[in-house]
Structures are given as structure tokens and as C-alpha cells.
Amino acid sequence: AHQSVEGQAMELGWVRDNICDLSIEDYLRMTLKKTCWYTCIHPCRIGALIGTRGDINLERFNRFGYYMGAAFQIQDDILNLVGDPKKYGKEIGGDIWEGKRTMILIHVINSCTENEKERMRLFLSTPRKQRLHKDVTWVYQLISKYDSIEFSRNCARQLADGALQEFFVAYGGLPESDDKLFIENIVLYMIEREI
After folding, report:
1. Cα 93 to the chain's mean position, in Å?
2. Domain spans of the chain?
3. Mean pLDDT throughout 96-116?
4. Angle (CA) 180 88 184, round 5°
5. Is the pTM value of this prediction over 0.85?
């Protein structure tokens, strides 16, 4: 829980302080803390503890859970912008309205011209209730201009590939079973969720 709270605090701090000079590595560090620990790493470790009655090295699940959780979070960020509202279940574009520093937005900011960066800083410093639809549309246009969704989708795929490789490290010694296949298939689901 500590890791998740720390990651959430990082993300909220970036929005509160209007931090715009972030790298993809910053985003992945935040995601490791905010999402990966509670979504993937801890559940894998808990399952391993129960399944082996405590007779296992839990560190072997960390990389698998990190890659899988990061791929999941990036895909969730993509769905937030282009998903089907009926399937996604949340506000489409909400991350832009909230000014969340997703991988997509960080990629856009790092790709922008100086004039675009200045306008983006101004947009992100404006409270959500005062943001205008035309400005959100402009951010979507930048996302398209700089192929930021495709960039993020490629990162998610690479992370999912890494998760599959780490799956065989973490679970390789176990006999084949429906449960093992289920966990392997979760990785593919993480990035192939319907948009």
C-alpha cells in the first residue's frame, strides 16, 4: 500500500505543481509505484505464497508484475482518450481535462515546439472547471500530430513482450495448468482490451 500511495502522491503532485518537464522514465517510475505494485506484483506474490505455502522466492515476480502493470496502465491511458464510453466506463478524455501526466501527454509535451509547450503549460495550469472544450480539442490535435497514442501503444506492446518473457522466468518451473495459462493470457488481455 505504501508504494501505491507514494505513486499516487507523485502523480497528484505533478498536476498540483504543474510539472511539465517529465520524462518517460519519470512516468514509468510513478506507474511502478502507483499501479504495478497493487495491480500485479502483490497479487502475483500473494498467489505464489498461497500456492507454495511460503516456499518460494517472491522477488522473481517483481519484473513480471512491473512489465505487466505498466502495460496495463499505458493501455488504460490510451482507452481514456479513444475508448468506447460504453465499454470503458469512465469519462473519455478525462485525463486531459484533469491534466494527468500520462505517457501520452508527456510524449506530446516533449515533442512540442516551444510555442506549443508554453500554451500547454498555460492549459495545464488552468483549473479543470475553467478549461475550455476548444483547448482540450487542441491537445487532442497535438496528440495526433505527434503520434503520441501510437508511441504509447508501442511502449505498452514492448512492456507486454517483456512481461511474457518474465512470465517464463517467474512461472517456468511450474507444471502446465489452466491456472498458469490464465495468468499468461492476462498479459495479452492487458494490451488488447477493446477500445
Report:
1. 15
2. 2-192
3. 98
4. 10
5. yes
